[in-house]
Specification:
By secondary structure, the chain is of the alpha+beta class. It contains eight helices and eight strands, in the order αββββαβααβαβαβαα. It has a four-stranded antiparallel beta sheet with strand order 5-6-8-7. Strands 1-2 form a two-stranded antiparallel sheet. A two-stranded antiparallel sheet has the order 3-4. The protein starts with a helix and ends with a helix.
Length: 274
């Protein structure tokens, strides 16, 4: 019995020692490890990702959209006579038939469609316009390459290519093909697709308030030399509220913003964000 008791005592002693050492190890090692991580790491090694912004002259920098602006699907794509769509047959993946605001009933289903991403802002703008006293409708939204070709060829036949080029776009050069642009009209068709639309109270309201909904008046009267289009107070392009406001503050058209967009795009590429 004595031997057995001694044996048990030895076992208990060994167990206590193991537990003691284990506790001591964790109590001493763990805080030391934390201290080295928290206190000994030089601040300079902490990598803070650089925020990429779009800086337009005269406007506050805005957060860059992390996407390739050269793609027709980008909300910030520039489409004009100098920069046609990179994919000539582009059709937006989220093209949606507009049912929540009035559209011209005699237009094709395509022209009564726009990109889904635009629709909530479009609805808000039309609702607020109605509250302000104007009944608006969409004269034309999305236009496919084929539809634009049909329009342009008809205009050329009617008035020659030089004239047609001032008020219409060649296929592949129309913003309407992005599904982000639209022609807005009064349901009464007063000054329909006419410069006098800009003198109507509805035209004035749109020119003043469209940026609040992310739409820009794309071809202003004082920028025809830049846009290479006549003044079109009915044609609006969705770019989102941030860019719409920045363009407004900088007094630049989307065409004039192109080099700044390119700079931001380069930064995105350099930082491998896209
Ligand atoms: Zn248009």
């Amino acid at each position: 019995m004595k031997t057995r008791a001694r044996y048990l005592l030895s076992l208990i002693t060994i167990a206590c020692l193991i537990i003691g050492f284990t506790l001591a190890y964790f109590l001493t090692r763990q805080p030391a490890k934390t201290t080295s991580t928290e206190n000994n790491t030089p601040v300079s090694t902490v990598v803070v990702p650089e925020k990429i912004t779009l800086k337009l002259p005269g406007a506050s920098p805005i957060d860059a959209r992390v996407e390739d602006y050269s793609l027709p699907s980008s909300l910030w794509v520039v489409v004009n006579k100098d920069y046609p769509l990179s994919d000539q047959q582009y059709i937006p993946a989220d093209l949606t038939r507009i049912t929540t605001v009035p559209t011209r009933p005699d237009k094709t289903s395509d022209e009564r469609s726009m990109r889904q991403i635009v629709l909530p802002s479009l609805e808000s703008m039309f609702t607020d316009a109605k509250t302000a006293g104007f009944d608006l409708m969409i004269g034309s939204g999305f236009r496919s390459y084929t539809t634009q070709a049909m329009y342009f060829n008809n205009y050329v036949k009617a008035s020659g290519e030089a004239a047609a080029n001032l008020y219409s776009a060649k296929p592949g050069q129309s913003e309407h093909q992005t599904g982000l642009s639209l022609d807005i009209a009064l349901t009464t068709k007063e000054c329909y697709l006419d410069t006098c639309f800009g003198t109507t109270t509805a035209g004035k309201w749109l020119a003043e308030h469209s940026i609040d909904y992310g739409f820009i008046l794309r071809y202003p009267s004082d920028k025809t030399a830049v846009t290479k289009y006549q003044y079109e107070p009915w044609h609006f392009r969705y770019v989102g509220t941030d860019l719409a406001k920045a363009l407004h503050d900088s007094k630049l058209t989307l065409d004039e913003a192109y080099p700044y967009l390119q700079t931001t795009l380069e930064e995105l590429r350099n930082q491998k964000k896209i």
